[in-house]
Write a structure and sequence with these properties.
Elements lengths: L1 H29 L5 E9 L7 E9 L5 E7 L5 E9 L5 E5 L4 E3 L4 E4 L5 E5 L10 E8 L4 E9 L24
Parallel strand pairs: 1-10
Antiparallel strand pairs: 1-2, 2-7, 2-8, 3-6, 3-9, 4-5, 4-8, 9-10
This protein binds copper (II) ion (CU).
The site of copper (II) ion (CU) has 5 residues, from strand 8.
């Protein structure tokens, strides 16, 4: 019995040490990506509905191209990297950007309504102006960079980041 208890405690200790090392490793890789900066970032307010998009200017301060391969946010069930292209019949349609976004060495990429944007699907709750939304970008090397974007009202252009904008009206996109 005594032997059993001792080995039990030993196992708990080993697990605790392993968890500590794991957390430390994650912390290390999280904050070393200051070479991709984000400016003027914002998210379109959504009083109702489940889709919106985030915009801003991504700037690469390094000597090599940076590829953004994915995005995520606690304010969205899932996110995609989108571009807007002429579709059938000339209407503008948005779709996933093949290979993600590329920000060239010492260059910038503007994410703007009607152009590149960070698409947000399956919002669990409406987004009201003034709210802050956390967004994390994943880069090609697996590292991540996070920022906070303010929710703003936007009704400009003819952009409608809601159901029907070149997308099925179902919130379940194909291939999801
Ligand atoms: Cu989109």
């Amino acid at each position: 019995m005594t032997t059993f208890r001792t080995s039990g405690r030993a196992i708990v200790l080993v697990v605790a040490v392993a968890l500590t090392l794991f957390v430390a490793a994650c912390g290390d890789s999280g904050d070393d990506k200051a070479d991709l900066t984000v400016a003027n970032q914002w998210v379109k307010a959504v009083p109702q509905g489940q889709m919106t998009a985030a915009f801003g200017v991504l700037t690469n301060t390094t000597d090599s191209d940076i590829h953004v391969t994915a995005a995520s946010s606690p304010a969205a069930g899932r996110m995609e990297l989108h571009e807007v292209v002429p579709g059938v019949g000339g209407a503008m349609q948005m779709r996933q950007k093949d290979g993600g976004f590329v920000i060239s060495a010492h260059g910038s990429l503007e994410l703007t309504p009607g152009g590149y944007h960070l698409m947000m699907f399956d919002l669990p709750a409406p987004l009201t102006p003034g709210e802050d939304v956390a967004i994390t970008l994943t880069l090609f090397d697996g590292s991540t960079t996070s920022f906070s974007a303010q929710v703003r009202d936007f009704a400009g252009a003819n952009e409608d980041y809601g159901p029907g904008h070149g997308m099925p009206t179902s919130t379940t996109a194909p291939g999801a």
